[in-house]
Amino acid sequence: MIILFTDLDGSLLDQSTYSADPAREALCYIKELGLPLVFCSSKTRAEVEYWRTRLSNRHPFIVENGAALFVPHGYFPEPFHTPVNRNSYGVIEFSAPYAQLVETLQLASQETGCRVRGFHDMSPEEISFRCGLPLQQARLAKMREYDEPFEILDPFRDELLEAIEARGKHCTRGGRFYHIVGVNNKAHGVCLLTSHFERTYSEIITVGLGDGMNDVDFLRFVDLPVIVRSSAARELKSQLSRARVTDLAGPAGWNQAVLEILDEHAPAAEAATMALVR
After folding, report:
1. Cα separation, 49 vs 68, whole angstroms
2. pTM tops 0.70
3. Considering the domain boundaries, does residue 77 fall inside one?
4. For this structure, is 154 an active site residue?
């Protein structure tokens, strides 16, 4: 069984248009084979649910840079034990509460004199403008539960990041913003899900696709890491020597890489289909 873990913005979704259309061929092939496609994003739960609906995705998902893992009830044949049940999901939360992260960011800013501007400071209209999002999706992006995106307005970046780390929190860098998070990263949810997929299907191959520095941790963990070409590709490759880098950026590169991998591992993909038929 092939399990695919993917970032959204800049990978499956175009960084500017947020369209997945160039990846339609691979998405249809994944669906035809019945392979799990797990979204692993910095987006909020509300945003990921929007894209799960748009792309007819029914699989578990990881939100806000690994802050929480959501598993639909009944998804696995064996129980997946989660400490929290919310709506139709079992939830495992790895992050500190959102309010605590915002407070830490404000305190570190005051201590260092380095001004910041986070999503909690921005209106949906500003987020829409800054990110090129439709207003409806900007409202979903502002519904933070675990992770605060922010921009740095002064040159004291290193001092600010050190002050955040000194308070037991971490920072990562996405395509547009820095993010303050707890001790979590995307690999936590990927690791847990991989273990459960192994118990369910016995033999699996994991594929990971991402384009930003906040994808490094989970790409290190998978069997087949793919760097979707971006401005961060060279830095990513320096930390992920065994990863392949797509020729094209965004969903076009994503599409090409997925089709190549599924062709290379056709027996495993076909076995997954036969298992579903049986």
Report:
1. 14
2. yes
3. no
4. no
